[in-house]
Amino acid sequence: MPDITVTREEAEAGGRYVAIVDRLESEMTFARAKRAGKNVMIINHTGVPSALAGRGVGLALLARAVEDARAEKFRIVPNCSFTRVMLQRHKEWQDVLAS
Question: Do 87 and 94 touch, CB atoms closer than 8 A?
Answer without folding.
Answer: yes
